[in-house]
Amino acid sequence: MDLWSYLEYAAWGLSALFGLHILVDWLRTDSTYSEDVLTSSREGELEAMAEEHKVH
Amino acid sequence: MTDIDITSQTMDGMGPHGTKVGLLRVLGPAHVWALGVGIVLVGEYMGWNFSVGKGGAFAALIACWFAGILYSCVAMIDSEVTSTVASAGGQYTQAKHIIGPLMAFNVGLYLVFAYTMLEAANAITAGYLFSVVASMTGHEAELDQRPFIILVITFLAWLNYRGVLATLTFNLVITAIAFIAIITLFLSTSGVLGGGIMEHAALFEGHELPYGWIGVLAAMHFGLWYYLGIEGTTQAAEEVRSPARSLPFGTLAGIMTLLIAATLTWFMCSGVLPWEYLGDGVSGSVAPLFDTARLSGSTALVWLLGFGTLFATLASANGCINDASRAWFAMGRDKYLPGWFGAVHPKYRTPYRSIVFLVPIALIFALGAPLDQVITFSILSGLLGYTFMPLNIILFRRKWPLDTIKRGYEHPFHPIPAFTLLGICGVTFFAVFLGYGTQLVAMIGFYIIVSLWFHFWRYRFVNRGAQFTMPWPKPKGY
């Protein structure tokens, strides 16, 4: 086993780690917050703010 | 409105339309530059040289500059429209506001396909680069590239998942290093600093245009490589602090950077490598800038360009994940796709479900499809997107003339850039047809089928009332 063989295993391990982290956080987020909150993003919020802005 | 700070996580003004969690506005012009140039710069490190194989070195230069005109038009048109329609989804959102739902659906799919395929191609390339480094450092057995391909995709997806600021700051750093590497190589090999190694006259003699003018036409297909993806800057529209300033600034600075990088790349590589070797990107020069560095005899340059190649590849994959997920997210938010994809992470403020959903798709293509097919599907989707842009800007100017709505940027000489872009797109379609006619027909067939599906089935679910979000006056003529 040379360095590159170890690096192959390290790459497998890190891939699993990143993948697992995403998966756990995803499931945790979906179970913590309601769908109403998570999908509440609406296009054009900045434009809406500009529209409602009044100069006093 | 004094209690609003759009960069703040707690008082960012979310809510006028019911948004409780939205994308975070934290990016500046440098991030926009890094997104656009980051996606593209890998095309300078590899891929463009297939154009030399199609028509010789001069044909590659003509293709480089004609494609440069095409993309300058793209950058100008995009800058005007996106600085006005500043929302995630980029050209998809533009199409939705300016042309209509069916065009928007198609453009959204062009974007997702182009970026996801390019991401897969970059991951394949990164795996290949690791195997080259392994064999150069004495690894005797064949390196298993799969764990490195998967690592690239999962690491970058993780980065994108965790937040846009870190993602694009990372892109800014590695893209800047890759660009500086090109400049350093030029200064070191062209004779500006020390002795030059360029042999243009000797290498070109008798090979000016080996396949005549049809070779020049065929070279256009790969001429796109120098700039493919600069239009991706528009996807940052909902996350920049000042869309009207940052988007035109970042996009136009990006195309200028690429015009310089592309011309220098052609100059260096064609002055050192014989066209027959340079033009064969499979068994000849896979990474021409790296090969030029090797011929310079400088170990420092070899290392610099080696890292430049890897960084350019990573930056491209990273930007592609960012852009594909924004387009997918925007389509989900409007219910062009299931609304489930329109979710934003409450802590990281990223379109997390879209990011996660596209990971296995990128992995399937990266591990199971040949590189040239993956790249061709990416180019074709991109090209269909460019064909939409001139129609988009012509209709935009007609429906909302300059004095009716405020634009962040007004591009000059309209409609010349639009017609130039349309003409060059036509030439490039013909060039692609010469090499990849079957794929072109298959791709167009695919988009016709999904359009029928959208028209007859999916459109009933679309959130039609909320589609048009810009506070513009009624379009002229309506």
Write the layout of secondary structure elements.
The complex is a heterodimer of chains A (56) and B (478).
Chain A: H1 3-32, H2 35-38, H3 45-52
Chain B: H1 29-40, H2 42-45, H3 50-55, H4 57-82, H5 91-98, H6 101-136, H7 146-162, H8 164-189, H9 200-204, H10 212-223, H11 243-270, H12 275-278, H13 288-296, H14 299-333, H15 352-368, H16 371-399, H17 416-456
Helix pairs in contact in B: 1-8, 1-11, 1-14, 4-10, 4-11, 4-16, 4-17, 5-6, 5-16, 6-7, 6-14, 6-15, 6-16, 7-14, 7-15, 8-11, 8-13, 8-14, 10-17, 13-14, 14-15, 16-17
Describe the fold and architecture.
The complex is a heterodimer of chains A (56) and B (478). By secondary structure, chain A is an all-alpha fold. Chain A has one domain (3-52). Helices cover 75% and strands 0% of the residues of chain A. Chain A is elongated and about 60 Å long. With 478 residues, chain B is mainly alpha-helical. Chain B has one domain: Up-down Bundle (Amino acid/polyamine transporter I), CATH 1.20.1740. Chain B has helices at residues 29-40, 42-45, 50-55, 57-82, 91-98, 101-136, 146-162, 164-189, 200-204, 212-223, 243-270, 275-278, 288-296, 299-333, 352-368, 371-399, 416-456. In chain B, helix 8 (164-189) runs antiparallel to helix 14 (299-333). Chain B is globular and about 65 Å long. The model of chain B has no long low-confidence stretch (mean pLDDT 91). At the A-B interface, helix 1, helix 2 and helix 3 of A face helix 7 and helix 15 of B.
Q: What distinguishing features does this structure have?
A:
heterodimer; A: 56 residues; mainly alpha; 3 helices; 0% strand; elongated; B: 478 residues; Amino acid/polyamine transporter I; 17 helices; APC family permease (chain B); APC_superfamily (chain B); cell membrane (chain B); transmembrane (chain B)
